[in-house]
Design a protein that fits this description.
The structure is a single chain. The chain is an alpha/beta fold. The chain has one domain (35-60, 70-214): 3-Layer(aba) Sandwich (Rossmann fold). The chain is built from nine helices and nine strands. It has helices at 48-56, 78-88, 104-113, 120-129, 145-157, 175-192, 203-206, 215-218, 221-225, and strands at 4-14, 21-32, 37-41, 63-68, 71-72, 89-92, 163-167, 195-200, 212-214. The strands form two sheets. It has a five-stranded parallel beta sheet, sandwiched between helices. Strands 2-1-4-5 form a four-stranded antiparallel beta sheet. A hairpin with a 6-residue loop joins strand 1 and strand 2 (21-32). Helix 3 packs across helix 4 (120-129) and helix 4 (120-129) crosses helix 5.
């Protein structure tokens, strides 16, 4: 059984002024094996972020099934989806979403608080692993963009997730930092056994993956919206 299996997944949004609905995601079938690393190609506006948010349980689907480790996420209530995400899914956001009023170490610990509980020693070891062992007491504003990305990576891995979702994780980085950050994400996922699902429009990022799919081709909502 795949770690992640999706069938007939649909998400729409209402159009303004009662003009019906706007299709955003319509994916017939998708699967990801445990420990696999897969890149999804897609330009901006193709529904990639919405797709990841549906998998993570941040958004509720209109219809269809998302089976994660045998559980249908679409049948869970919001609190149960939040709990599943905290325990089993790490999310690396394009904009990092770090808490500016908290230190680097506290940002990682905050993610742990919603999962298996805070383990300061492990949080510090993760930050050491991503090259920030000397920045534990720093605030995000005191870090470079590349360093902030590394905090986001450590936070995403803090609860030993089975799956890591990465939404354009190199989009705010220069070429050198993008290459280093991508290598770090893939290496740590491999070391921990976490599956990785990354979405990007950057061909240099996509070229680094042995396995890639075209999300624009998968998403039937694009064809529907173009009618």
């Amino acid at each position: 059984m795949p770690l992640l299996e999706i069938n007939d997944l649909v998400k729409t949004y209402p159009r303004p002024a009662g003009g019906g609905v706007h299709p955003v995601v319509d994916v017939r079938a998708f699967a990801l094996e445990a420990g696999a690393q897969l890149a999804l190609r897609g330009e901006s506006g193709t529904g990639k972020t919405t797709f990841l948010n549906l998998i993570a349980g941040i958004l509720a689907a209109d219809s269809g099934a998302i089976r994660f480790d045998g559980r249908d996420v679409t049948r869970l209530g919001e609190a149960a989806r939040d709990r599943l995400r905290a325990l089993s899914i790490g999310y690396i956001f394009q904009t990092f979403n770090l808490l500016q009023g908290h230190t680097v170490l506290e940002n990682v610990e905050f993610g742990m608080a919603f999962g298996r509980g805070v383990d300061r020693a492990y949080a510090a070891s993760l930050l050491q692993r991503v090259g920030l062992g000397d920045k534990l007491g720093h605030f995000p504003r005191q870090l470079s963009t590349g360093q902030q990305q590394r905090v986001a990576v450590a936070r995403a891995l803090a609860n030993h997730p089975q799956l890591v979702l990465a939404d354009e994780p190199t989009g705010n980085l220069d070429r050198r930092n993008a290459r280093e950050s991508l290598g770090l994400i893939r290496e740590v996922c491999h070391e921990t056994g976490a599956a990785l699902l990354l979405v990007s429009h950057d061909e240099r990022v996509l070229a680094a993956f042995e396995h890639m799919q075209d999300f624009s081709a998968m998403n039937r909502a694009l064809a529907e919206a173009a009618k």
